[in-house]
Design a protein that fits this description.
- It comes from Saccharothrix longispora.
- Helix content is 38%, strand content 22%.
- It is of the alpha/beta class and 514 residues long.
- The strands form seven sheets. The protein has a seven-stranded mixed sheet with strand order 16-18-19-14-13-21-22, sandwiched between helices. A six-stranded mixed sheet has the order 10-9-8-11-12-24, sandwiched between helices.
- The chain binds nicotinamide-adenine-dinucleotide.
Length: 514
């Protein structure tokens, strides 16, 4: 097992400082000089904490070549060898999850407890991939025709690209990378340029776990890097997660270049509260799912659909909870919600708060005046609540991706269902009720990929698969779990016969099963 030292100045949150974050190609940090770099901020202070290299097409080509060379050997590695690497990586990640948690908080801004939750869900995806020998078992039909057997085998695709968003810098790469490499592929990962260090930490840890050089490469960058991956003839598949316009672009461009693509997009997730619901439970859930990670989750609840007459009482309970939230630097004890990821993103979210009232909604809690436990120049916006939001407003329609929760009031269950189903997104949704029949009807009728019953963020466990419907996913496969294994393999079916002395001689007819 090779041991790769993870250079401390690139991984510790307090040591990211002015360091340069490099690509990881061929099992080590890239030593070239790139023309462009990007700023990586500490969102809780507003200061530039590091500069990340932004790849041009030549660097992407270098990473793809490294992955291509590694593929010829890695696809021949036994299932036992691949599983052993995955088990070793799981042990290392578990032992060092505190460091990865700190990296996530330092660059993304989410509070430490939330970052720890992200890393834990990532570990579950790794654990699923440890079972790869079982997952790649094919079918076998003895004597499908007389003395003829038929069996199926699942083989890797080759070099695959993974492009991930800023909001889960550890978990989303690990939704894909473990399954991809356990299936025998080699990977070029292009993480978000806003919080790139988690990907390097993961790559170095995989190297330490015994993954051969070149099987996992990390290329940092923005549009030019993604575009090169999309058109590179040696990249066979792309797993993308990000906003809907880019997901659509990635799906269309990648498939036009002959690749298999799964592109997960944005969301506007509704939580329906029926009149018989436990309103304390519903209010807790709305606040947790609306403001956790400052609303920067693709499964965040951004719209509460209150079925009257619960509106007034529910909003009052939400207001009490929102006002009590402790907002500040995610490293400080007791903080429940951190800053937004960049100043530019915070300003975009603020524009919806400014416009919301002009669009006719009632601003019940204004996050601009919330107390902040952090440095003044951090990218802050406190939790914000709008009531009586119309479905024809930008406040309702757009994915804001910040701590802004809207309440839409409707008279009946049917009206609530109509609101959810008319929305172009279909990532997650939830219903809060004591009525099992209503919940069952909702799960049957709602046009959304992931549904919670009295559960506000129904992210499937690692042995199911994650994916939305409609504008929340372009492609045919959901992420991780069984659909992930399916995405990263192609099936071959073999029909075989071992002749015995009784074989029947020449026959020019089309084979029939007898
Ligand atoms: P984004 O679309 O801006 O970026 C995602 C990735 O695409 C990044 O790696 C980025 O570098 C790259 N990219 C950005 N612009 C590009 C362009 N013009 N051409 C090619 N590549 C480009 O998304 P984000 O702001 O990093 O992440 C937040 C978004 O991701 C939200 O919309 C959120 O809902 C979504 N998201 C979805 C899921 C899901 O599972 N459906 C999960 C997490 C996040």
């Amino acid at each position: 097992m090779s041991t790769v030292r993870i250079e401390p100045e690139r991984i510790g949150p307090e040591r990211i400082g002015p360091e340069r974050i490099r690509h990881w190609i061929g099992g080590k940090p890239w030593q070239g000089e790139g023309a462009r770099t990007g700023d990586v901020f500490d969102p809780a202070t507003g200061r530039v904490a590091a500069r990340v290299d932004l790849a041009d097409a030549a660097v992407v080509d270098e990473a793809v070549a490294s992955a291509g060379e590694a593929f010829t050997r890695w696809r021949g590695a036994s299932l036992a060898q691949r599983a052993n690497v995955m088990f070793a990586f799981r042990e290392l990640l578990n032992a060092r999850k505190g460091e990865l948690t700190a990296i996530v908080t330092a660059e993304h801004g989410k509070v430490l407890a939330d970052a720890a939750g992200e890393v834990q869900r990532a570990l579950e995806a790794v654990e699923f991939a440890c079972g790869i020998p079982h997952l790649l078992k094919g079918g076998f039909s003895e004597n499908a025709s007389t003395k003829v057997d038929v069996w199926s085998i699942q083989q890797p695709l080759g070099v695959v690209g993974v492009v991930s968003p800023f909001n889960f810098p550890a978990m989303v790469p690990l939704w894909f990378v473990p399954n991809a490499i356990a299936c025998g592929n080699t990977v070029v990962l292009k993480p978000s340029e806003k919080d790139p260090s988690a990907a390097n930490f993961i790559a170095a840890l995989f190297a330490e776990a015994g993954l051969p050089d070149g099987v996992l490469n990390v290329v940092h960058g923005d549009k030019p890097a993604v575009d090169r991956l999309l058109e590179h003839p040696d990249v066979k598949a792309i797993s993308f997660v990000g906003s809907t316009p880019i997901a659509k672009y990635v799906y269309e461009t990648g498939t036009r270049h002959g690749k298999r693509v799964q592109a997960l997009g944005g969301a506007k997730n509704h939580m329906v509260v029926l009149p018989d619901a436990d309103l304390d439970l519903a209010a807790d859930a709305a606040v947790s799912a609306g403001f956790g990670s400052a609303g920067e989750r693709c499964m965040a609840i951004s719209v509460v659909v209150a079925v009257e007459p619960v509106g007034d009482e529910l909003v009052a309970k939400i207001v009490d909870r929102v006002r009590a939230l402790h907002v500040g630097d995610g490293r400080r004890p007791g903080c429940e919600m951190g800053p937004l990821v960049t100043g530019a993103h915070r300003d975009r979210v603020l524009s919806y708060v400014d416009n919301g009232r002009a669009e006719g909604a009632s601003l019940v809690v204004d996050g601009r005046s919330h107390a902040i436990d952090g440095e003044a120049d951090g990218f802050w916006l406190g939790p914000t609540l709008f009531d009586h939001v119309g479905v024809d407003t930008a406040l309702y329609r757009d994915e804001i991706f910040g701590p802004v929760l809207s309440v839409v009031r409707v008279p009946t269950y049917d009206d609530a269902l109509e609101v959810v189903n008319a929305n172009p997104y279909g990532n997650g949704t939830a219903i809060f009720t004591h009525d099992g029949g209503a919940a069952r009807r909702f799960q049957h009728e709602v046009e959304v990929g992931m549904v919670g019953v009295n559960v506000p963020i129904p992210v499937p466990v690692a042995y199911y698969s994650f994916g939305g419907w409609k504008d929340s996913l372009f492609g045919d496969s959901h992420a991780y779990g069984p659909e992930g294994v399916h995405f990263f393999t192609r099936t071959k079916v073999v029909t075989g016969r071992w002749p015995d002395p009784a074989h029947g001689g020449v026959n020019l007819g089309f084979p029939q099963n007898t």
